[in-house]
Amino acid sequence: VRAALESSGLEPERLGLELTEQVLIGDEADAHRTLSQLKSLGVKLLLDDFGTGFSSLSHLKRFPIDVVKIDRSFVEGLGTPSGASDAAIVSALVSMSRATGKQVIPEGIETEAQVATLRRLGCESGQGYRFSRPMALADFDAWIASCASAGASS
User: Which among 107, 81, 104 is positioned nearest to 93, based on CA atoms?
Assistant: First the structure.
């Protein structure tokens, strides 16, 4: 990572590395040491798909993670009549993440009802098809320009 930053000239704080919790399982001392070295470079560390699989609340406390990405399985039901338990879980994850100094990014946002619920729960950012599908860099440049001009005209 250090070599890639040096050769590209990218400012380290502009790089975010997404990690799954599987990386944290096993030799936790080695994982902590490696993540601490990455943090010392200035890169951001994002914990992907939090809340499923190998999730442990202790990871929020023990590892130098900057961002918790809430798994889409907790976002799917938001804004629906049966979504109360999802909202309670997301609310708790947001509270715990904030209390430990971490940003929260819910994943899998597809509807305006999900956006509204997440805003009500205190989420300031999110990721999902509601905003955009994955795209090539050239398409991204055009997309961001159209977003900027749409924002300027409204």
Answer: 104
Q: 2-130: what CATH class?
A: alpha beta
Alpha-carbon span 87 to 89, nearest angstrom: 5
Distances (CA, A) of 22 to 49, 56, 71: 11, 11, 14
What are 7-22's pLDDT values in tens digits? 999 999 999 999 988 8
* Placement of tokens 């502009």 in the chain: 14
Backbone dihedral region for residue 79 (phi beyond 0: left; psi -120 to 50: alpha; all else: beta): left
**Ramachandran bin of 105, using left for φ above 0, alpha for ψ from -120 to 50, beta for the remaining angles:** beta
* pLDDT, tens only, 71-109: 999 999 999 988 999 999 999 999 999 999 999 999 999
CA distance 48 to 140: 22
Domain boundaries, the chain: 2-130
pTM for this one? 0.84
Hey, how many other C-beta atoms are within 10 angstroms of the C-beta on 115? 20
Task: Report the C-alpha gap between 154 and 150 in whole angstroms.
Answer: 6
Positive or negative torsion for Cα 134, 136, 141, 143: negative
Name the token pair of 76: 């799917």
